[in-house]
Amino acid sequence: VKPRALFLLQAGWNELGADRFASPVYEALFAGRDSYAPESIDYFVGFRPEPGFLKTLPRLKAIISLGAGVDGFLRDPDFPRHVPLVRSVDPNLAIQMSEYVTLQVLTIHRHQRFFDAAQRDHAWRQRMLTRNAGDIRIGILGLGTIGNLIASRLRTFDFQVSGWSRSRKDVPGVKSFAGESELPAFLSQCDMLVCVLPLTHETRGILNAKLFAQLPEQAWVINVARGAHLIEDDLIAALDRGHLAGAVLDVFQTEPLPSDSPIWAHPRITATPHIAGITEPRTALAYVEDCIARAEAGKPLPNVVDITRGY
Amino acid sequence: VKPRALFLLQAGWNELGADRFASPVYEALFAGRDSYAPESIDYFVGFRPEPGFLKTLPRLKAIISLGAGVDGFLRDPDFPRHVPLVRSVDPNLAIQMSEYVTLQVLTIHRHQRFFDAAQRDHAWRQRMLTRNAGDIRIGILGLGTIGNLIASRLRTFDFQVSGWSRSRKDVPGVKSFAGESELPAFLSQCDMLVCVLPLTHETRGILNAKLFAQLPEQAWVINVARGAHLIEDDLIAALDRGHLAGAVLDVFQTEPLPSDSPIWAHPRITATPHIAGITEPRTALAYVEDCIARAEAGKPLPNVVDITRGY
């Protein structure tokens, strides 16, 4: 008898045919469509279950997040803390994030938005580079798998890269800052700041007026982590005061970003609809199958979240 | 007595103070400003002298191009073919070109123009990637110093890279096609085509209707070489017929691109004002000084152009 995995899907995944979920390892059921006895469910797989939902499944052996961030699980006060929570570590996701960040960094460095505006005006406006890539300092908030790959791709272009994380990291060519005490020194040397932090109670709202004031004049902010890391009003104030040069946002306090948000029309914000890293069904489902096979074989699960730490 | 170098400058360089040209190796004079006896000039340094001008300098020991392309010299029917012509090989120029091409390739791959349009509409429009980078084939026309660095930067992102050149090249991870006979096979496997060829009588107008027809459906064309490589009307026809998906142009038949050119407003062309690679005065002048010092010491000059070949 195969163990039963209950999938809770979201936009984009709902259109996938059931055959994509077929597996020799588990039987797939779909929340909101299939009927099942709660005690028959062995594994939960999905993104952001409603608070209180998971405690209705009394026999769970593991909970598998389809996204890299697990804040959508830990927000639940009734989250069953005795069940191992596995976060998706999709190599493809880190690759996508590093492409996105490199694209945005090069867009800034090469003044592409200035040339876009000149093209709209049918005007030949040349402009020299402000600095060579080797003279631009990029700081990455969060030096896990994703932050590491971003750092390595940016180093290829000779950008100066530093990183900030809870504990000190040893990444070749990347200056590591660690802990609350070294955050000011880190921020003071970021011409561009890239946020890829996990969302925890310590990092919620970390991109705020106090942090922006510690960045150099004319710094850039790129947020590809979670909308809740950023106080959007503080960002707009720092841009409008002229302290920050611009921002690139892929995530927002409210998603989809409401059409009346001032972010859309801000002349110095690039906004994209949470597409920096898209979990690819094929890769993610292979990961789910591997996790369940390991658990059934009594082997240790990979990437189990430290619930106290939050990632 | 120091040898005399005559500089012919162009837009951007004219604003530089004369002290930037001061050197222990040569005495700098400026065409159109200083008076001089033509036979007293030992070296000519500049971009695009008027046809016939160089033959008025009878004692030249070398001609040094400030740009990487020397088509602006070889167009002169009276070019003094017995004088060595040195082309600028600025490592910084190759770096800049590789940044520009990577930026444009990632912009296409990541649908950034689609998201720009969505932002203008204040609309949350998600879109999956068409393919992973590893499934996108990029072909580089011209595998010299610049083409090589572009290939290597694109390989970092796992793009499939091939190159076409007159003679076969051995670049790690890059499939090499050589000569006229292998051009069709090369073109048939280019999802994106990047032109960094030197402009010669063999490559003038190479980006034409016949070439576009040999590219796969929905291919992209990126021209960062010379405007005269491209038949602009053929490009627009191939775009409008829907065979090509889009183009990125940094160089044009006429520069500055006239404000009434249909290129500016074409929805599937990105146009920038010849800024992919900007010769940096500091680097270029150090190169000029090194060339003249070598020539004066009787050492061989670097990067002497093969006049018959044209680069």
Structural commentary:
2 copies of one chain form a homodimer. The first copy, chain A, is α/β, with parallel strands linked by helices and 311 residues long. The first copy, chain A, is 27% helix and 17% strand. The first copy, chain A, has 9 helices and 12 strands. The model of chain A has no long low-confidence stretch (mean pLDDT 95). The interface between A and B is large, with 47 and 47 residues.
Task: Describe the SSE topology.
2 copies of one chain form a homodimer.
Chain A: E1 4-8, E2 27-30, E3 43-46, E4 62-65, H1 71-74, E5 85-86, H2 91-109, H3 112-120, E6 137-141, H4 145-156, E7 160-165, E8 174-178, H5 183-187, E9 192-195, H6 209-214, E10 219-223, H7 232-240, E11 244-249, H8 262-265, E12 269-271, H9 281-296
Parallel strand pairs in A: 1-2, 1-3, 3-4, 4-5, 6-7, 6-9, 7-8, 9-10, 10-11, 11-12
Helix pairs in contact in A: 2-4
Low-confidence stretches of chain A: none
The largest pleated sheet of chain A is described as:
7 strands, parallel
- How large is the count of helical segments of chain A? 9
Radius of gyration of chain A: 21 Å
Instruction: Please give the share of residues in helix of chain A.
Output: 25-40%
Element pattern of chain A in H and E: EEEEHEHHEHEEHEHEHEHEH
Tally of DSSP β-strands of chain A: 12
Describe the strand arrangement of the main beta sheet of chain A, using strand numbers: 8-7-6-9-10-11-12
Give the largest interface pair and sizes.
Answer: A-B, 47 and 47 residues
What best-fitting shape of chain A do the alpha-carbon axes yield?
Answer: elongated
Strand content of chain A: 15-25%
Separation of the first and last Cα atoms of chain A? 33 Å
Q: What structural category characterises the helix and strand content of chain A? A: alpha/beta
Quote the average pLDDT of chain A: 95
**Multimeric status of the protein:** homodimer
